Amino acid sequence: MPSSNLKNSVKNTIERYSMINKGDTVIAAVSGGADSVALLYVLYSLKDELGFSLAACHVNHNLRGEESDSDERFVRRMCRFLDIPLYTASIKVNDLRQKHDSLEECARRLRYDFFESISKGRLIATAHTASDNCETILINMVRGTALSGICGIPAKRDNIIRPLLYNTREDIELYCSENCLDYVTDSTNLSDDYTRNKIRHKVVPLLKEINPSLFSAISRLSQSVSDDDRYLDKIASELMEKARTADNKYDVGILRTADECILRRIVTMIFKDNDIPPNMKAVESCVGIIRAGQGKINPCQFRFVQIRKKKLFVVTDREKFRRN
Amino acid sequence: MPSSNLKNSVKNTIERYSMINKGDTVIAAVSGGADSVALLYVLYSLKDELGFSLAACHVNHNLRGEESDSDERFVRRMCRFLDIPLYTASIKVNDLRQKHDSLEECARRLRYDFFESISKGRLIATAHTASDNCETILINMVRGTALSGICGIPAKRDNIIRPLLYNTREDIELYCSENCLDYVTDSTNLSDDYTRNKIRHKVVPLLKEINPSLFSAISRLSQSVSDDDRYLDKIASELMEKARTADNKYDVGILRTADECILRRIVTMIFKDNDIPPNMKAVESCVGIIRAGQGKINPCQFRFVQIRKKKLFVVTDREKFRRN
Fold it and tell me: Do A211 and B143 touch (CB under 8 A)?
């Protein structure tokens, strides 16, 4: 795709997913790397046409000493040049890291907390690209997932939008180079993540030897599968509400009319509503008792899913369960 | 999974997919390799319990001279030992290979032609495993696919059944070793296919470093996604029939009630029925004219899809199209 098309392509993505409405304020998350610099400039070039206000935010992770501060100064200069407001946060990732938290995971969590704290109903645009999406889909597949994992990174979720999600890193580098945009080495690209590094540096290059348009192929897959997933969730939600009884249980007779794949989704939703961790085996067991019309399962500590008098319900308290 | 479970696991697969009914005859396709030897023995151990008759077939591809003949003798001896009928075919793959046909693709085509010629309504069991399925899914993903490609190799299609599809190569080798089953190097494993070789020998080992249970993870994904795909196809077929008019066109008003992902499937089905090659862009264009309620597209040579008087139809003849 020629660089001049990045703007049009991003505009299409924004419109296709109804990301931005007239009068909205969009805060672009800018690390200073090529992806986020391109994001900021493309949004800047679209803001009058699409009628939104633009701001930026930057998170200093304080992980690379002077280099981190220099990235922050770079972003400050850029925003001053474009005359757009900038929100910054300084985060000591290493101090706030919790047990079992990878550096990348912790930084991600803190970044999104910061986004939430500044957004106040405004949109946050992140610079995730088709390359990130492809990696995420492959990681989900390898670790084990159902359809939802193949959807990859959502183009829009709540107030987070990802206008670059269907463009590749190559599109972005071309755009930066043709528009003489300077950028720093992406400071959010911490990638201490063993799995993501292996996928990015070893698996993806092999797959690109098979198909140089890998990212486009996976992007199309991700979009088409996301539509399928949304539709199936809609059908499942509707049936789940139809089955809900006055006493907030579920009519097993109605649940049993569902196709296998819909029933599995309904059970997954019931689990989520009751803080039961997602677990394919437990979901299958629960589908089993629904099909049988009776039984109870114990999907995790302090939770029982039980069928009584043709109604399914979750018991969340041990004592209460004993009394029943 | 301990070896003793292979039989139970295969029995579960057979029952879950209603592969075999009492009184059926199953012809196992046996190359002599570990996978197909395990398939033959597992089916042999299940035939009385499930009430089916067992036969075998073997294709000599004549690609490795004396080695090919020796494989055939090996299979003959095994079937004589088990006292089951054997159908054999001798195919000169190299002579019958067509332009643009890879050796593997050609051998595959000839093998399935042979299966069809001998089956006469009986079932053919092939020895595809979770490892084959994982490779196929990765290949489809990399080359570009929608949901259907993530379903992988179907467990059952027409009279072809694949009882080992959810077992791994490791399960099979363990079964062979614990049951002292001898086997030859799989003669169907031609693999001159550049893509499959790269996936099998380079990509899969890297992914297994990330998750040693890769094949199980992909198997579960394949099963769950196949259910989703089947359900969406059912919904699409039903709406397509509802939209079909007396003059064998499609009522655009009815088509437009469909969700995007269902409409895409309906268009794909209409394309297939009219010998229009699958092509995502053409499908999107067709969805576009349906949403617009008017227009025509030319998805391939000698085919036009057109909307007139709120009905969609395919014109398959150029002259006829001109006259319209």
Answer: yes
